[in-house]
Amino acid sequence: SLTLINPPATTVKSYACQRRTPLKHHNTFLTDALEILAENAEFNENEGRSVAFRRSASVLKALPHVVRGMDDLKNLPCLGEHSVRVIKEILEDGTSSEVESTRQSEQYQAMKALTGVFGVGVKSADRWFREGLRRPLDLIHTGQKLNLAQQAGVQYYNDLNRPVTKREAVAISHIVEKAVNAVLSGAIITLMGGFRRGKEVGHDVDFLITHLEEGAEEGLMPKVLNWLEEQGLLLYQKTTRNSYLESKDGPARPPHNLDRFERCFSIFKLEKGKEGSGTSLNTSYDSGPSWRAVRVDLVVSPFSQFAFATLGWTGSKLFERELRRWAGQEKGMSLSSHALYDSKQQRYLRANSEEEIFAHLGLEYIPPSERNA
Ligand code: CTP
Ligand code: MN
Ligand code: MN
Ligand code: MN
User: Fold this and answer.
1) Looking at the chain, which residues constitute the CATH 3.30.210.10 domain(s)?
2) Cβ-contact 173, 191 below 8 angstroms
3) Over 60: is that where the pLDDT of 282 sits?
4) Whose CA is nearest to atom 1 of ligand 1?
C-alpha cells in the first residue's frame, strides 16, 4: 500500500541568496536572541561561530509563519545543534539562559558600547576592555590615544547612535545630489544599503555614484568633498582612492569582502527642520542644537561596474556573504562588487543590471526589499 508522507509545510533553500527575506518577519523573538550570540561571537573574534548564528537567524526570517514548536524546525537548513538548543529553550521557557547571561555580561555590554564608537573595531575595544575601560567616556577620562575617526566618533557619539530616519536619508540625498551636480553634470546618484532594502531607519546613509560616460567619474570624490567642505556640511571625512586598477591579485578577488572603489566614510552636519517635511513645525519644541551628525558612505563606480557595485552595496551583509559563497561553492565563480569571474570558462561575465548577475549565477532574481537576510 502507499505510504502518504506529508510534504514539509515550508521548504527553505539553504543559501540566503536563494530565499526571499522580507524586512518584517514573524520570528523576531528568536532571531534577536540568536543575533545577540552572533554579535558576542564577533566580540570574541570567532567568525565561524558568528556566521553560524547569523545563518540560523536568517533562515527563521524567511519563514512565512511564527515558530511555535520544535516540529516547525523540521527540514530547515542551517540550524546547528547550538542554535537549535537556544531556540528550544526559548520555546519552552520564554528565554534562553545563555542569551540572557550574555546580554547581562560586563564584557558584552562594554564591547557593545565601545564598538558603538565610530572608528572603534573589535580589536581596539577588546584591548581597552582588558585595560578596564567600559564606556566611551572612559576613553577620554583615561586619556587614550585616539585616531581622527575615533575622535569624531566620541565627539558625535550620541548623534551617531541615534537611528537615521528615512526622512533624514532623503534630506542627505538632496545634499549629495546638489554637491555632485555642482561638480559634474549627468552623474547618477543612487541610495544603497539598508534604505534601498526598504528600511525605515539606518545607522548611516549609503550612496553609489556613477556616470554613463565611462571615465567621467574619475576624480569626482575630492571635488564633491571640497564642495561639501566649503558649504560647511562635513564634520569628518576619510577618503580611500580607487585601488582596483593597481591591484595585482585580480579584480574578482579583493581582500575579504572589501571592494576597491573610490570611497569616503564621512560624517555630515545636517540642519534640523530641513528633512523635507514641507513644514517647520517639527522644530518648534526642539531646544537642542540646530543640527545633528549623520554617518554617510559615498562610493564612486565606473559605469561598466555599476551593476556589480549596486548588488554589492545593497546588502544585507549576510546576503552578500551568501552570494559570494554560492558563486564560489556552487558555480565555480568569483563575485565581487567589481566583477564576476567564471573559473571554468576563465573569463569575466558582463552584466548591465542586477537581474543579469543573478541570471549568470543561476539564481532567481531577488529584489532589494527581499534581501534582508
Ligand atoms: N559595504 C562594503 N564595504 C564596506 C562597508 C559596507 O561593501 N567597507 C557594503 C555592505 O556589504 C553592505 C552595504 O555596504 O552591502 C551597506 O553596509 P552598511 O551601511 O554597513 O549596512 P546597511 O545594510 O546599510 O545597514 P544600516 O542601516 O545599519 O546602515
Ligand atoms: Mn556549539
Ligand atoms: Mn547603511
Ligand atoms: Mn554604510
Assistant:
1) 310-370
2) yes
3) no
4) 313
Do residues 30 and 57 make contact, with C-beta atoms less than 8 angstroms apart? yes
The ipTM value here is 0.96
pLDDT at 275: 66
Give residue 9's pLDDT: 58
Cα 363 to middle of ligand 1, angstroms: 22
Given a cut of 60, is residue 173 above it in pLDDT? yes
Q: What is the CATH number of domain 310-370?
A: 3.30.210.10
Distance from residue 82's CA to the centre of ligand 2 (Å): 4
At residue 292, the pLDDT reads: 98
From the alpha carbon of 202, which atom of ligand 1 is closest?
A: 27
Determine which residue's CA is closest to atom 15 belonging to ligand 1: 315
Report how far ligand 2's centroid is from the alpha carbon of 91 (Å).
18
Does ligand 1 have an atom closer than 6 angstroms to the CB of 206? yes
SS3 256: coil
What's the CATH superfamily of 106-155?
Answer: 5' to 3' exonuclease, C-terminal subdomain (1.10.150.20)
Question: Could you tell me which residues come within 8 angstroms of residue 278 by beta carbon, excluding any fewer than 6 positions away?
Answer: none
**For cell 547581562, what's the residue?**
104
Q: What is the average per-residue pLDDT within 39-55?
A: 98
